[in-house]
Design brief:
The complex is a heterodimer of chains A (about 290) and B (about 600). Chain A has about 290 residues and is α/β, with parallel strands linked by helices. Chain A has 8 helices and 12 strands. The longest helix of chain A is centred in the last third of the chain and has 24 residues. In chain B, the strands form 8 sheets. Chain B has a 9-stranded mixed beta sheet with strand order 19-18-20-21-26-25-24-22-23, with helices on one face. The chains are: A alpha/beta (about 290), B alpha+beta (about 600).
Chain lengths: ~290, ~600
C-alpha cells in the first residue's frame, strides 16, 4: 500500500539543535543574535553594535547602554542517510529496502514542505556513499524520489565508518536521520552516532526490521543460514529452544540500540515491515517528539 | 462385508513417499540468506545430519495428503451383501438410424439421446448392471450385461448413428426377452419415434421407459434417383429422374445440382410447397460415369441431401448370331441403329470372328463353348447347357426378378405372350430371371448366370420372324436387355443399393468388412450402413438412403412415456461394491487446504 504524501503536508520535523549557517525559517531560541525579528534578550552594548538596536528607554531608566538581541532564524539541513547494504534485501519477502525508501521519501517531503534543506546519502555496501546535492525547494521532491527509487541493495557496509566519513565530509550541523536495519553490533552504530553528534547534529535512528527477523519461523525451520554480506554460514534447526534463544538475543539487541540512542542523545524508533508506515509517521514519530504539527 | 482393491497396481505410487522424504531431507540443507549472523552465531548450531529425520507438521500433512491420494488410486472398495431387489438392471435401447442425425437445439437427436443414456448409466449404483443395444435396421448388442459402468460410458461415447432406416421391433423384442428372462430388468428406449411406431404391441411397452427425442421437421430430401439409359444407345440419350421432397410444413427453396464425375451436368432452383414433392428430369448428360445429385440446403438432416447413381458407358451392339436363318439377325440389326450383327451357320461357327456376345438360335453346338458370353434362344432338349424339358404352347410371362440386372428397368413384361415356348429347368450355374406359365403350370422362361467364367443366359423362346407388330416389342426389349447384361464384363456396372437393405452381392464376391459396408454369407450378401461410394474388389457399390420414413423427421408431441409396470424384485441376493476412492480424494482435498493454511501461517504477511 503506497503512502499518500498529502496526508503529511501539515507535519514538520521538530529539532532543538543542528542550527545551520544560512538564514532560514527555523527559529533556534537560546542563541540570540544581533539582528532578527523576534526579541529574545538584551545585551550590554559593545562597540560595533548596531545603534539602531539600542534600547533608549533602558538607557534613560538604568543609565546603561543595552542593545536588543533577537532569536536566531536559520536554515535546517536534514541529512537522510539510507542504508543500502545487502542485508536490506533479506528476508526477500519482507521488502525492508522498499519500506526504508518509502519512509525516507516521506521524511524528505515533510522537510521540503517546511522549507528545510534535504541531503540524501545512500550508504552503499561497497563503501562508497553516494550523496545528493542539497535539495531546497518543494519541487525537488521528484528528484528525491528518483534518487531513492534508483537505490539497489548490495555489498557489505561498515556503518560506523561510513557515518564517520559522512560526518567529516559534511561538517555543518543539522538533523541526521539514519534509516537502516541496524543488524550489526550496537557498538558500530554508536560509533557512527557519536561522530554525527560531534558535528552538533541531532540524530534520529529509524530501525526498519523485517517480520521474518522478528519471527524467523515464518522463513525457515531448518537450513544453513548464510550472511548475505560476509558469506559466513551457520547451520540451524529452528527448534523451540533455538527460537526462544534467538528471541532473547534479539530483545537484547533492540534494547542495546535503544540504550545507545539514549546514551548518545539520539532518538530511536523501530518500524516492522509488516506495520503501517503511515501509522509510524502519524503516531509513533509524533509520540517521540520527532514530528509535530506546524 | 469385505475390503478389496480395484487397482492394486496403484500401490506402486507409494514410491513417491520416498521422494517426499528425500525432498524433505534436501530441504534441511538449503541455504537461507539472512542479513547478519551476529545474533544467530550465539544460537547453538544444529548438526544437519541427513540420516536424522525430524518431521514437522507441514511434512506430516504432506505425507498424509500423499497417502490419501495413493489410497484413492488403488481404489479400495467395500463389498456388502445386498438383496437383489436393491440392484438395478438397466437395458438401454438407443436408436442409431439415419433420422437420429437430425439437428435439434443442443445437438443432434443422437447426441441428445446419448447424453440422456449416459445420465441413466451415471445414476446406477455400484453393482447395478447395464446392457446397451443399438437399433437401426437391425438390433446390435453393443455391450452385454456388465457392472462396469465406465465401460458402458465408453461404449456409448464411441457409438455413432448410421445412415440406415429404423427397425425398432427387433431391438425391442430382444429387450423384452431379456426383461422376461430377468424380471428386475428396466428397459429404456431412446429414439425419435413415438411408441406407436415401434412395431410392438402397446401392452408390451408397459415395461418400457420410452423417451422420444426430436421435433424438427425441417428437411428436404432426394427420395429417388433413377437413370434410364437405353441399351446400346449413346450416353447422350440417357436421362435421369430425381425426386425431391419437402418434408417441412413451410415452403422451401433449394438448388439441385447434378454432376457426372467432376463435370457439372445441371443446376436447378426449385420451390417446394409444404410437404410437396417434385420430380426433376435431367437430359443430355455430358459424359458417362458416376452421377452425384445434391441439394444445396441447410436443413436438419444432411444424409438425404445427396444421392448417387451411374450413367453406364454404352457401346454399339456387337453380336454374332448362330442361326440357320436370316430372320433373327435381320431383326436385331434393324432394331438397334449402329449395331454390328453378323450371322453364321452353325457348322461354320469355328471360322467366325469373335464378337462381344454370341446368340445361338435353337442350337447348342457340341464341343467346348466359345469364350464369348452366350445367349441360347429356344435351346433344343437334352443339351448340356440349357436343360429344356419340352415345348409348350400359349405361354405368358407371369413374374420376373426385378433386381436382376438382366431385366433391370424393364416394364411391361407381363404383356409378353408366346405362341410357342421352351419349358426350361433352372440349371446349377444360374437362376430363374423370368417365369413363364401355361395353363398347366409355371416354368422358367429365362435363366441366367455365370458358367466357366462367362455369362450365359437361356431364353425359352425365339423371334419367329421379322418385327411386324407391336406385340413383338416386349420380347425384343427382353432380348436386348439380356444382351446388354451379357456383353458387359462381370462387375463392370456399379451396384446400386439402399442403406440397410441387404442385397445379393453376386457369385464370387469375397467377404468384405469395411466402415459402412459389409459383404458376408453364402451366397454373399451385401449390406451398406452408410451412404457413399465403395469399392469391393473390382465392383463399385453406390449406396443411397431413399427412405421416406427416415427423411420425414417431423414429430408431433414428443416427450416421455414412463413404464407403467415396474420390474419385480429378484429372488436371489447379490453383492454390491461401494468404492471408497472418491472419499479418499475428498479427504486429500481437505488435507490440501489444511496444508496450504499451515504453509501460509509460516509466510510473512505482505508489507503494508
Amino acid at each position: 500500500m503506497s503512502l499518500d504524501l498529502e496526508e503529511l503536508a501539515r507535519l514538520t520535523l521538530r529539532v532543538r539543535r543542528g542550527m545551520g549557517d544560512r538564514p532560514g525559517d527555523r527559529r533556534f531560541p537560546g542563541r540570540p543574535e544581533p539582528a532578527g525579528i523576534e526579541l529574545e534578550a538584551y545585551g550590554a552594548y559593545v562597540p560595533g553594535d548596531d545603534l539602531r538596536h539600542l534600547d533608549w528607554n533602558a538607557v534613560a531608566r538604568l543609565d546603561t547602554l543595552l542593545v536588543r538581541r533577537f532569536t536566531a532564524e536559520r536554515e535546517l539541513v536534514v541529512h537522510l542517510l539510507l542504508d543500502a547494504s545487502a542485508s536490506m534485501a533479506v528476508p526477500a519477502r519482507d521488502g525492508k529496502l522498499a519500506v526504508a525508501r518509502e519512509l525516507a521519501l516521506a521524511l524528505a517531503y515533510v522537510a521540503l514542505g517546511a522549507n528545510d534543506a534535504v541531503r540524501i546519502a545512500v550508504l552503499s555496501g561497497d563503501g562508497a556513499t553516494r550523496v545528493s546535492p542539497l535539495l531546497r525547494q518543494r519541487g525537488s521532491l521528484a528528484r528525491a524520489a528518483a534518487l531513492l527509487a534508483a537505490v539497489a541493495p548490495g555489498g557489505r557496509l561498515g556503518l560506523g565508518a561510513a557515518l564517520e566519513t559522512y560526518a567529516r565530509e559534511h561538517a555543518h550541523p543539522g538533523l541526521a536521520i539514519l534509516v537502516s536495519d541496524l543488524m550489526m553490533e550496537p557498538a558500530q552504530v554508536e560509533r557512527g552516532v557519536l561522530a554525527l553528534r560531534a558535528r552538533r547534529s541531532e540524530v534520529l535512528l529509524l530501525h526498519v526490521i523485517g517480520a521474518g527477523e522478528l519471527d524467523p519461523g515464518r522463513e525457515f525451520t531448518r537450513g544453513v543460514l548464510t550472511d548475505v554480506e560476509t558469506g559466513a554460514t551457520h547451520p540451524i534447526v529452528l527448534t523451540p529452544a533455538a527460537r526462544a534463544r534467538y528471541r532473547e538475543l534479539l530483545a537484547e539487541h533492540l534494547g542495546a540500540l535503544a540504550a545507545l540512542a539514549e546514551r548518545s542523545g539520539a532518538v530511536y524508533a523501530r518500524l516492522a515491515t509488516d506495520a503501517s508506515v503511515r501509522a509510524f509517521l502519524s503516531v509513533e514519530l509524533p509520540r517521540l517528539g520527532v514530528l509535530g504539527r506546524r | 462385508m469385505t475390503l478389496g482393491l480395484a487397482n492394486p497396481a496403484g500401490a506402486l505410487a507409494l514410491g513417491t513417499v520416498g521422494v517426499l522424504i528425500v525432498l524433505h531431507l534436501y530441504g534441511r540443507r538449503r541455504a537461507v540468506p539472512v542479513g547478519t549472523l551476529f545474533l544467530w552465531q550465539r544460537v547453538p548450531a544444529e548438526p544437519l545430519d541427513r540420516r536424522r529425520f525430524r518431521p514437522d507438521l507441514l511434512f506430516a500433512l504432506q505425507l498424509v495428503l500423499l497417502l490419501a491420494l495413493i489410497a484413492g488410486l488403488v481404489r479400495p472398495y467395500l463389498e456388502v451383501a445386498t438383496p437383489a431387489a436393491e440392484r438395478v438392471r438397466l437395458l438401454v435401447v438407443l436408436d442409431v438410424s439415419a433420422s437420429m442425425q437430425a439437428r435439434e437445439e443442443g445437438g443432434t437427436r443422437f447426441e441428445l439421446a446419448r447424453r440422456r443414456a449416459r445420465a441413466l448409466v451415471a445414476q446406477l449404483l455400484t453393482g447395478d448392471e447395464v446392457m446397451l443395444v443399438a437399433a437401426a435396421e437391425r438390433a446390435h448388442v453393443v455391450l452385454a450385461w456388465t457392472a462396469d459402468h465406465t465401460r458402458a460410458q465408453d461404449r456409448l461415447e464411441a457409438l455413432e448413428p448410421l445412415d440406415t432406416p429404423t427397425n425398432l421391433a427387433a431391438a425391442l423384442e430382444l429387450a423384452l426377452g431379456e426383461q422376461r428372462a430377468r424380471p428386475e430388468t428396466q428397459v429404456a428406449v431412446l429414439t425419435d419415434l413415438p411408441p406407436e411406431a415401434s412395431g410392438v404391441a402397446r401392452a408390451e411397452l408397459a415395461y418400457v421407459d420410452w423417451i422420444q427425442i426430436g421435433r424438427s421437421d425441417d428437411n428436404l430430401a432426394i427420395t429417388g434417383l433413377s437413370v434410364d439409359a437405353p441399351p446400346f444407345h449413346p450416353v447422350g440419350d440417357a436421362t435421369a429422374t430425381v425426386l425431391v421432397r419437402n418434408y417441412a410444413h413451410v415452403e422451401r427453396r433449394v438448388v439441385l445440382e447434378a454432376r457426372v464425375g467432376t463435370e457439372t451436368w445441371a443446376r436447378r432452383e426449385l420451390v417446394l410447397a409444404p410437404r410437396a414433392a417434385e420430380p426433376v428430369l435431367l437430359t443430355d448428360p455430358p459424359a458417362d460415369g458416376e452421377l452425384t445429385v445434391s441439394l444445396a440446403v441447410d436443413d436438419a438432416l444432411a444424409v438425404d441431401n445427396r444421392a448417387r447413381a451411374e450413367l453406364p458407358a454404352s457401346r454399339p451392339l456387337d453380336v454374332l448370331v448362330v442361326s440357320a436363318t436370316r430372320a433373327l439377325g435381320a431383326a436385331l440389326g434393324a432394331s438397334v441403329a449402329g449395331s454390328r450383327v453378323r450371322r453364321v451357320e452353325p457348322e461354320r461357327l469355328a471360322e467366325a470372328e469373335p464378337a462381344r456376345v454370341v446368340v445361338y438360335d435353337r442350337s447348342v453346338p457340341p464341343g467346348p463353348p466359345r469364350a464369348e458370353p452366350a445367349l441360347y434362344l429356344a435351346p433344343p432338349a437334352d443339351n448340356p447347357i440349357c436343360p429344356g424339358v419340352r415345348t409348350v404352347d400359349d405361354a405368358a410371362v407371369i413374374d420376373w426378378d426385378v433386381d436382376h440386372p438382366a431385366v433391370g428397368g424393364l416394364q411391361g413384361l407381363e404383356a409378353l405372350t408366346l405362341e410357342h415356348a421352351v419349358q426350361l429347368v433352372t440349371p446349377g450355374w444360374g437362376s430363374t430371371v423370368v417365369l413363364g406359365a401355361t395353363a398347366r403350370g409355371a416354368f422358367p422362361l429365362l435363366v441366367a448366370g455365370e458358367r466357366d467364367g462367362r455369362r450365359v443366359a437361356c431364353l425359352g423362346a425365339d423371334l419367329a420372324g421379322p418385327l411386324v407388330s407391336s406385340d413383338d416389342v416386349p420380347f425384343l426389349l427382353l432380348l436386348l436387355s439380356t444382351l446388354r447384361w451379357l456383353e458387359e464384363p462381370p462387375g463392370g456396372a456399379a451396384l446400386l443399393v439402399e442403406t440397410g437393405v441387404p442385397v445379393l452381392a453376386g457369385p464370387g464376391a469375397a467377404e468384405f468388412h469395411g466402415p459402412g459396408l459389409h459383404v458376408a454369407g453364402d451366397p454373399p450378401v451385401l449390406l451398406a450402413e452408410r451412404t457413399g461410394v465403395y469399392r469391393v474388389g473390382a465392383r463399385v457399390v453406390l449406396a443411397n438412403l431413399f427412405d421416406d420414413r427416415e427423411s420425414d423427421i417431423g414429430r408431433e408431441g414428443g416427450g416421455e412415456w414412463p413404464a407403467t409396470v415396474r420390474p419385480a424384485a429378484a429372488g436371489t441376493a447379490g453383492t454390491a461394491r461401494r468404492e471408497l476412492g472418491r472419499w479418499l480424494y475428498l479427504a486429500a482435498a481437505a488435507l490440501l487446504v489444511l496444508e496450504w493454511s499451515a504453509w501460509q501461517r509460516r509466510r510473512p504477511r505482505e508489507v503494508a
